[in-house]
């Protein structure tokens, strides 16, 4: 088969009755339960395809079709077992690319080449996964494919339907990269402890850690692996310090950011911002009326502060205060004019007291508490937030 033959074959497949163009697809290695092998504990994708490489998708579907494994692709997702017949069929279609499939080139072909080195028993731990629509995931493999899409940056934060993901995943004990079925641990607790073989358990959770699956950019630092959950997205240059820091799934950064506080699920922080030690950005389930929080560029969230409204660019929240939707802030007339000038589209009329929700998304705000009266106040910020470039 030549490359021209390959392209012609792909076009033929894409016009066939069985083919359906996917939103995403990939080949995953699965970890099974130690007690119940039918229970899937996690799915590891060495490479995912997200709205790309449709030629490879066509080849995989044809190989499934020719080996009698393909079912009608009329749902939002489909998961297939990998067999030796499937691998041989798919490999035959990839012949023009075999020698070129090294390094960063033709990773789908590389995956098939690797599968061709395994026997039938080993292949039982691999699955082919297709997503055809962004609907609530129904399988563990689909949940992981979406988590990979977020953590690799192939899908934007807050862009994917993860409804019901917690109900799909199993709660497992994590020992390094190995998920362990809790029922198996309970059943074998005595013999494991008596023999000194009880594993070191790093966490018990439905989600693994980010670094168990994702290789970050060279200038990204995560000083404690437990501080970032799989499904988080870290832009290059982000630094996550130990201590009170944490980044949940479907949350993260859009550029170089210093993280010493908590970025809750669905919260997004813009480049150049600093989330101070113990500072907390509320998630959609923790006091934001279900509204996801975005923090703009070059903002400073002071140590132990709480932010529960979206902020524009260049905002400062002083240490130790809470900026919530219902928090009342005093604003002087002169500060109102300065803030209006910095936010031309803000159509508010002056009043002495503004609630936090009325200031949501504005740029150039400085929130603080009067140390004499205790009154919460908001000013036009006159300080520049700038990260140390040597650290990012």
CATH superfamily of the largest domain: Hexapeptide repeat proteins
Strands side by side in the biggest sheet: 9-10-13-16-19-21-25-26
Q: How would you sum up the major sheet?
A: 8 strands, mixed
| First-last Cα distance | 49 Å
CATH architecture of the largest domain: 3 Solenoid
**Apparent shape:** elongated
On the 0 to 100 scale, the average pLDDT is: 95
Helix coverage percent of residues?
A: 10-25%
Query: Which structural category do the helix and sheet elements fall into?
Result: alpha/beta
CATH topology of the largest domain: UDP N-Acetylglucosamine Acyltransferase, domain 1
Strand content: 15-25%
The gyration radius over C-alpha positions equals 25 Å
Number of domains: 3
Total DSSP helices: 9
CATH class category of the largest domain: Mainly Beta
Characterise the protein shown here.
The chain is built from 9 helices and 26 strands. It is α/β, with parallel strands linked by helices. It folds into 3 domains: 165 residues, Alpha-Beta Plaits (2-Layer Sandwich), CATH 3.30.70.2010; 31 residues, no CATH class; 182 residues, Hexapeptide repeat proteins (UDP N-Acetylglucosamine Acyltransferase, domain 1, 3 Solenoid). The strands form 6 sheets. An 8-stranded mixed sheet has the order 9-10-13-16-19-21-25-26. Strands 1, 2, 3, 4 and 5 form a 5-stranded antiparallel sheet that branches. A hairpin with a 2-residue loop joins strand 6 and strand 7. The model has no long low-confidence stretch (mean pLDDT 95).
